[in-house]
Design a protein that fits this description.
The complex is a heterodimer of chains A (257) and B (290). Chain A has 8 helices and 14 strands. Chain A has helices at residues 8-18, 32-42, 72-75, 84-92, 133-139, 172-175, 213-218, 238-247, and strands spanning 25-27, 49-52, 56-58, 80-81, 98-102, 105-106, 112-113, 116-117, 125-126, 142-147, 183-188, 191-194, 203-207, 225-232. In chain A, α1 (8-18) packs across α2 and α2 crosses α8 (238-247). Chain B is of the alpha/beta class and 290 residues long. Chain B is built from 12 helices and 12 strands. In chain B, α2 runs parallel beside α3, α3 crosses α4 and α5 (99-110) runs parallel beside α7. The chains are: A alpha/beta (257), B alpha/beta (290). Chains A and B meet through α4, β9 and α5 of A and β2, β3, β4, α4 and α5 of B.
């Protein structure tokens, strides 16, 4: 627990939930975004629907804790149980408003590496791979990534682009035929970074309570731009914390206790 | 199981497993492949929740053709890392996909098409490092991936090979249609009239199915709708023990090589705590025709 009475992961869930707008179709990944969808649905976004890549659509969070999107409580009460290619079809048509992707390494333009650290032929570290991440990055209308804020993770240039963000800057996505709008934000353990409309470089938008702009910049592997109106990330309200703790009662994902 | 795997999965085979993603993973079949010391397999799947990691660690695998290999609730696959980073216990080749492109590669094989064009993976380095993908005129061509055998775990099947699988299907249909043959493992073996009462729920033609194996609990520790919860603790235990080569070998000896079959394996599992008890039946549909 931090002094504010919540863990960094709970703050990240609350921040990610705020990225979801009411009525949106959300491509939910694993871990914290599952909680973020549940929080948003039960607070400010009652008409948000969730899509899960294994082949599910829901309009309410699971009634019980989920270790994975494929746990039986996530299937019970689903709006649609289907094959993966049908879910991908919706995203390819531009019908997914927002996607979440877990990241291992990200650069200033929001390009993600979840494949290889070092030479792919003989990597220093083999990461698990894309999963649906690259598909979300390319096809969803906008996306958000969540990760631990460390200089080795927020790097000047990723060595391998698994999931493209804004490439090398504004206009790159359009030039290369990518359909979706690209990354909108990076939610980290220290801060929220945002990308300008139309692409470009990430900017420090809000700093989590208990941290400073200088600390965030020091923990970032490039010379991070700071928004002129940089603010503090709002901490989760008591109501949001209650929602998170109902969805993750033992702190499996949010590391309580 | 021993007979089905022995007859239909030779050394060097291309095998699709775990095609529903996190649920219904045919762990029992994978463990039998390890016990039979199968070698040089190409494993095909979308994400693999620990099963591919186990087969890699046991030295069964020459190539991975998948979107993600690890442990979904715990993170990295330690055997996958040792094989790709250090060639231990042997070097493996990796054909990276995204979830969408591995599905399309299997649909391409199912449709006997030379490739399927898509706009996913534009701008991703995956296109450059996977020889089965090619960028032509601003479109990614996904070449077919054809499994020699696809192994599935279904809730119920009859002896003729007709299976009902419900819940999310992932890439199970295209993996089954694309395969030369299919092995169906099932939780319940039922009479044909049960299956044929609902032909819409039969997700593959019986002509593809080479073997039916009645293997209750064969998907543990993965979940199976209507039958089993996911055993999160088992995935955590595997993640911790497989962190070192010695730890993995001890796990392998205890949970795979040291047990003769699935029934003996399940004796070491708290099945009472994992079995789903609350029933949630769907309403029957009426196929009336006159």
């Amino acid at each position: 627990m931090t002094d504010g009475g919540h863990t960094p992961q709970e703050l990240m869930v609350a921040a990610a939930a705020r990225e979801i707008r009411d009525g949106e179709l959300v491509f939910v990944g694993m871990r914290l975004p599952i909680l973020a969808y549940g929080v948003a649905r039960n607070t400010h976004a009652p008409a948000a629907r969730a899509l899960f890549e294994l082949g599910l659509m829901r309009d309410q969070p699971s009634a019980a804790f989920l270790g994975t999107m494929g746990d039986p409580p996530n299937v019970a009460g689903a709006l649609w149980a289907t094959r993966m290619s049908n879910v991908m079809a919706l995203m390819a048509q531009g019908e997914v408003d927002l996607g979440f992707i877990g990241g291992a390494e990200v650069d200033r333009f929001g390009n993600l590496n979840t494949s290889y650290i070092g030479d792919p032929a003989r990597p220093r570290t083999k990461l698990p791979g894309s999963g649906g991440g690259a598909d979300i990055a390319i096809l969803s209308r906008r996306w958000v990534t969540l990760m631990s804020h460390e200089p080795r993770r927020l790097v000047e240039r990723v060595s391998y682009v698994t999931s493209p963000g804004h490439g090398d800057g504004p206009g790159w996505r359009a030039r290369n035929g990518l359909l979706g709008g690209g990354p909108a934000a990076i939610v980290t353990t220290l801060a929220v970074l945002r990308f300008p409309e139309g692409g470009g470089e990430a900017e420090l938008a809000t700093v989590h309570p208990g941290h400073t702009v200088d600390e965030v910049r020091a923990q970032t592997g490039w010379d991070l731009r700071v928004a002129p109106d940089v603010a503090e990330t709002p901490p989760p309200t008591a109501g949001v914390l209650a929602q998170i703790r109902r969805l993750d009662p033992d702190g499996f994902w949010t590391r309580r206790g | 199981m021993a007979e089905a795997v022995g007859r239909f999965v030779p050394d060097g085979a291309t095998v699709a497993m775990g095609t529903a993603l996190e649920p219904a993973i045919p762990f029992a079949a994978g463990h039998e492949l390890i016990r039979q010391h199968r070698r040089d397999l190409t494993l095909v799947g979308p994400i693999s929740d620990s099963l591919f990691d186990q087969l890699i660690g046991a030295g069964c695998v020459a190539r991975i053709c998948a979107a993600w290999v690890g442990n979904v609730s715990e993170g990295l696959g330690h055997c996958y890392r040792r094989a790709t980073e250090r060639g231990e216990p042997r070097a493996i080749e990796v054909h990276d996909h995204s979830n969408f492109t591995i599905s399309l590669a299997l649909w391409a094989a199912a449709w006997a098409s030379p490739y399927v064009p898509t706009r996913t993976l534009l701008g991703s380095d995956i296109v450059a490092t996977n020889p089965d993908l090619e960028l032509v005129d601003g479109v990614v061509r996904v070449r077919p991936v054809r499994p020699d055998v696809t192994i599935l775990h279904a809730q119920r099947a009859d002896a003729e090979g007709r299976a009902h699988l419900w819940g999310p299907l992932g890439i199970s249909e295209e993996a089954g249609l694309a395969a030369r043959r299919v092995i169906v493992c099932c939780e319940e073996l039922v009479d044909p009239e049960v299956i044929l009462s609902d032909p819409n729920r039969v997700f593959l033609p019986e002509t593809k199915v080479a073997a039916v194996v009645h293997e209750p609990g064969g998907a543990h520790p993965s979940p199976l709708q209507g039958h089993w919860r996911r055993d999160h603790a088992a995935y955590r235990d595997y993640a911790e023990r497989s962190r070192t080569t010695d730890g993995f070998q001890a796990w392998l000896e205890e949970r795979v090589l040291g047990v003769p079959d699935r029934a003996a394996y399940l004796a070491g599992v708290d099945t009472g705590a994992l079995r789903i008890r609350a029933s949630r039946p769907s309403a029957p549909v009426d196929y009336g025709d006159d």
